[in-house]
User: Fold this.
Amino acid sequence: MIQLQGPGTPFQLLFNGEMPAEPSLPAAFRQIYPGDWHLPAVANRPYTYSNFAQGRDGRISYNEPNAFSGGEVTDFNAHDRWLMGLLRMRADAIMSGDATVNLETSHLWTADFICPYDGAAFNAQRQAEGFAPTPILVIVSLEGKLNFDGACFQQAEDHIILATTQRGAAYARGAQCKAKLDVLELGADGVDLQRLSALLYDDYGVRNLLCEGGARTFGAMLDAALIDEEFVTLCPNFIGRSNEKFRPSYCEGVAWLPGKAPYSQPYSLHRVGDFLFMRTHCCYQE
Assistant:
């Protein structure tokens, strides 16, 4: 039986619009995160879900030298980090942009890294559900210029896929690191995300893909109609933005027209204190 410590108190379920007949998560997980979480299969590509935290004004980063990550947005909220562990637990692969990887050089994209006190429980459940010991890390980069001394590149048992352009592939193919590194050339000037998604499914057996950003990677995935559902931690703090201080919003790099924009339908809403944890299904207009 899996023993979970949890983040201190259970999430309070405020709304649940998804009521499948059979539970998906074990009871110990549902006691902490009530309402369950099912991952359906889709044809010919991974089922893709995203995870972000945003301030009250929709900003996802203070973008300061020592406050770049979402951790500063949430003030390293324990429930947010536990939920990140849960989402990583069921990911065959985790996608991130190169800016995040280069700035968070000590980070490892695993459940036990983000939530170490329940890491053993997440890993045990991951094994029970038939996942590989660690997710593949998929890095999207136009230039291929990564800090290959970062911690994620130094794990010999890990697998990293660099999805990049012709120039990025030329730069990165000579890189030396301990992790297994596959460099995929997927376009002349941009990364073909539809092709990447198909390759992850067909060649790497990725059925569940977690997108952790950043804002441009998420925006491009949303624009390609590749995000199936989103998890968003809605934080109580305002972050702001000025001409002198750029703070990225939840989605950057794309701008849709009325009648063409993606939209989301609520699946569930949880609350802990002043924080809200929203899960939605993403929909696309022709």
Observations:
- Residues 78-89 form the longest helix (12 residues).
- The mean pLDDT is 93.
